[in-house]
Amino acid sequence: MTWKTTDAWGWGRVYRTRGEFARPERASALDRIAADSPCPAIGQRRSYADACLNSHGRTVLTDRLDRILSFDPDTGVLDAEAGCQLSEIVRLFAPRGWLPTVLPGTGFATVGGAIGMDVHGKNHHHAGSFGQHVASLTLHQPDGRSEVHPGEPLFEATVGGIGQTGPIGSARLQMQRIKGPVMMVTERRVPDLDTYLSLLDVSEAPYTVGWIDATASGASLGRGILEEAENGAGLVPPAKRGRTVPFDAPPFALAGTVVRGFNAAYYRRIPERGRTVVKPMEDFFFPLDKIYDWNRLYGKRGFHQFQCVVPLAERDVLRDMLAAVAASGLASPLAVLKRMGPGRAGMMSFPAEGYTLAIDFPAREEAPGMIRRLIAMADEAGGRVYLAKDAFAQPEQMDRMYPDRVAWAELVNARDPEGAYETDLVRRLALRTIQ
Question: How far does Cα 276 stand from its chain's mean position?
Fold first, then answer.
């Protein structure tokens, strides 16, 4: 296996490293790496900060392990290699009446990455997390391959386990039947946070998600656009054409006045009476994927994303968070609010019942302090931050946010005593340290 020295970075383009990378094309090649040079495996590096980086050693890229191995049209069970992108599964199987049960906000996420982060989607309140629909997975470890199933401790340590149990070679996914390859989406303006949360609480739609104007304050604090959607049959409307960001945006592009003006216009693009539209699957599930390299819109310095989940009883914390962000002048146009159900598949999985808020911040000098403040607020409220996006949480916060961390660390340390699978995130947060 050839190892190539090159640069790598997280999706936020702030955390960067240089190291050795291998790109196996066959499971047998992954077996050899697992035996001779065990190291972390990553997919498309869509984690925002340092979760997908290993500054201290080698890394396996799974992008060439992207084959569909089998599909049972009677049961809907799909066997796919870890590097297979979720958008490709949607493209191939939605016209045949099947869809992954859970889809995150980007189709560039891989099967292995979706398992390692136990991703969630716009239907978490009904369907739970991605890992809850994994029928089995195959790990490639120094002592050989092992097939792991739900209910086994190793499965629960792997799903949401940030790659610390070894490279995933393939997985069997339970797909869901669908009516057709389109989504019926109802969009409506929501004037403030209380109204927004109340609508989320009573919604019976299979999919719900909302954009928040993170620059709004006063009586308009938390205003936004709520989307409720369900799958439908019919003709597929033309998908939006993909666009490329040809250069890094200049600093003034995200100046406070520009963002406030953009957000106000975006809010008013929906008629006061609301509207229902038909969208292709990709446009609904992966809206930003149509803008290739959209992370360049934040300029050369990159950006951070904060995402937390707080219990349903902690509405006031969300209000305080949004008020702090609006007052800071750091908000970007990207802010999302959803309601989550109780479903999670792994010991270190992020999803928990509550409200989840995600906000992008340009990487300015003031951003780390703002994000640390938001993390502390989530911690105090009994919530947690999403490790796929975290850049500023502290090790002492982890046991409160992830109460199964010690048990998880004991299991992964027993299987990987040399720490071969550790990544920069794992080291920064001392996730495998046991006092």
Answer: 27
